[in-house]
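hi! just following up on the protien thing from before. the input was this:
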Amino acid sequence: MIQSMPHFVQNLTLANPDRHFVGIMRRMMSKGSNLGDITGLLVILEAEAVVMLVLVLAVNRNRKTSE
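and the predicted 3d structure came back as:
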C-alpha cells in the first residue's frame, strides 16, 4: 500500500503510470464510477503517455543522427 510508504517515496509513485491505472480500475470496479469521476486520473495517464512518446521519438531521432 502506498499509504504505508515513507512520504518521499509516496511522491515518487506519482510518476508511475501503474498507480494511476490501478486507481482508475479500482474506482470503476469497486465504486462503479463514471467518466466524470476518473477524468483527472485519465488526464494524468494521457500526459504520461505523451511524455513517453516524445522520449521514444527523441531517442529514435538521436540514434539516426548518431549513425
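Residues 2-66 form one domain.
Residues 27 and 33 are 6 Å apart (CA to CA).
cheers
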